[in-house]
Amino acid sequence: MTAPNSIHPNSPGHSNRRLDVREGRVDLSHGGGGRAMAQLIEDIFRRHLDNDLLRQNNDQALFGPVRGRLVMSTDGHVISPMFFNGGNIGSLAVHGTINDVAMAGARPLYLAAGFILEEGLPLADLERIVIAMAEASKAAGVPIVTGDTKVVERGKADGCFITTTGVGEVPDGIVISGERATPGDAVLVSGSLGDHGIAILSQRDNLGFGTELQSDSAALHGLVADMIAAVPDIHCLRDPTRGGLAATLNELAAQSGVGMLIREAAIPLKPEVRAACELLGLDPLNIANEGKLIAICPAERAEALLTAMRAHPLGRESAIIGKVTKDPQQLIELETPFGGRRLLDWLTGEQLPRIC
Amino acid sequence: MKFIDEYRDSALARNIASAIRTEVHPDRDYRLMEFCGGHTHAIFRYGVQDLMPENLRFVHGPGCPVCVLPMARIDQAIAIASQHRVTLCTYGDLMRVPASERQSLLKAKAEGADIRMVYSTQDALAIARAAPDHQVVFFAIGFETTTPPTAVALKTARAEGLSNFSVFCNHVLTPPALRAILNDSGQDAARIDGILGPSHVSTIIGSAAYAFVAREHGLPLVIAGFEPLDVMQSALMLVRQINQGRRDLENQYSRAVSPAGNTKAQALMRETLAPRETFEWRGLGWLPDSALRVADTYADWDAEQRFPVEVTPSREIKGCECPKVLRGLLEPTDCKLFGTVCSPENPMGACMVSSEGACAAYWSYGRSRQSNRATTASAA
């Protein structure tokens, strides 16, 4: 982990005193470019995220050429609460960016991480976050190779914000893009929707309803690799994060200039998610996910793709939920279990509970 | 989900739809007004209209508390928050409702007013407890359904001696609104053959509160639950009444509603709140005895007394047909602003703001149907 103007911990004058991770808190000196900052980087970031490229100790990571085409993606993570059932902001920051890279059909290679820390953040919390990032990155086989740390005054951030950037390589012959959905194509989803959003909501201070539901936060590049191996001609992949299924399908429809017809009864939903949404007056199709993907492929390859998805641990509950239609208005229609139809629209503003 | 899935059974829905199609007389129309936004929401969300025969139409009523709140009350809330520098707590639906001068609570918040979204009165009380030196105002809104929690908050505040908590009361009552619609005998009065009556409201005030509809106005009314099968079964009950020439008060939502309602909640409301002589309803104008204020015995917790602000009359946006939509006189798509300058992203009228508003429901769920109709019409 490097930072502009950082003092290398082995440089003359560096104290051997360890950071008090158990009791200490982030203060402005941890972002000041001095010894305290070097110590923070050494004792938390480098200690847990250690790898060959990070150990270069430069302000950038230098690595060799890759074989395929390159993709790059970046994502800011600002989540409240920072710790939740099934992960924390650190694991989320790793999974989120790996997934954004993987949705091009790419093999993610490297990550960079930028931290904005609020003065007063307990160092123990920061360490938990970094450990979660290290574990997520190791499990995914995608190292964090460079980064940056800034500290802002108390009240100017919400504990910890993380921006992660990822690069990956796309195998030759693979062309996956949001503009490729074609009328007649099948629409698939890799599992139950809304788990992440409801897990987060349930742990907000002012809601706190009892659920054991865990966030679905996960890195999906392994699932994507298996899908591509089975069906190379996947037209679109996207992870339905903020805005949920509704936003993602509308994005893809707009990009491709098509409509879609989705069967509501085919969409996998956990009973806990349905119950929480019922209670709060929310639509699970607008709720965020962090470990699910939407795939669109030619109808004749849909069953083969579904089989490949279900064979992967992260795709066991995959389902074919509908088809792409020809519609100049680019509307997503939902066939209700009653046989009626309604629109599945973009979310307007923030999804808010109804009054009665 | 127990007690939910039973009311969304698709096979049962098709059976009820089939029964309705069998029973309606082909030579007449059936115009059924659903009073509540919850009904409107269910009709659109589940595509209930698609299952109905062509000659049965749902007419959307005024039953969305956000939609009927006049601009002046939002203006007043913004003034309380900004002039008196209090923390204003409100339910989420209200945040984007247009106020005068293109303001809204959300914009006022962005400009520095301390406006917070809460999920319950208990959240607002907790904020007040946590900051005893700072004044907290709860923006209370809703029909009789959401009134008891406000009553409990007032009682709690008094019991705890919470001197930094008060209520800006905007609770409105459904029977006077229904009366106003049914008394409208003007040329453009909505033609209604039967009414789907409020369900959650009736759990509080009881079904007997609507007996006047049949008795005084000669219209059948069925208290109807909010689940799609509730709405469909209630429609069937209304069709049967209409066909048989009956004008009765019936209760489809008997699993939750009794004739007398929740007497304990009613007592709480009587203790803490009092009727206002008159109150302005968007679309219906000033209606006597149609709203509640904080009772004199709880005046110390009345935000309107504690934080006086100048109240200016409402000035609705030119061309906005919300008032007519709320009375069932126009469909949302008849409004010139619908889908042009008025959309959920940029609402001109309150019916486009709340998810229970008729315009928002048309836009979010029913736009495709409208375009299909237009396509069919132009092809014909």
Automatic annotation (TrEMBL), chain A:
Composition skew (Polar residues), residue ranges: 1-14
Pfam family, one: AIRS_C
Official protein name in the record: Hydrogenase expression/formation protein HypE
Domain PurM-like N-terminal: 66-170
GO biological process, one term: protein maturation
Region (Disordered): 1-20
Family stated for the protein in its record: Belongs to the HypE family.
NCBIfam families recorded: hypE (TIGR02124)
InterPro entries: HypE, PurM-like_C_dom, PurM-like_C_sf, PurM-like_N, PurM-like_N_sf
Domain PurM-like C-terminal: 183-328
Automatic annotation (TrEMBL), chain B:
Gene3D superfamilies for the chain: 6.10.20.100, HypD, alpha/beta domain 1 (3.40.50.11750)
Keyword Cytoplasm assigned: no
Signal peptide: none
Entry keyword set: Iron, Metal-binding
NCBIfam families: hypD
Family: Belongs to the HypD family.
Stretches that traverse the bilayer: none
Origin species: Thiorhodovibrio frisius
GO biological process entries: protein maturation
Protein name, per record: Hydrogenase maturation factor
Domain of life: Bacteria
InterPro entries: Hyd_form_HypD (IPR002780), HypD_1 (IPR042243), HypD_2_sf (IPR042244)
Keyword ATP-binding attributed: no
GO molecular function: 4 iron, 4 sulfur cluster binding; carbon monoxide binding; iron ion binding
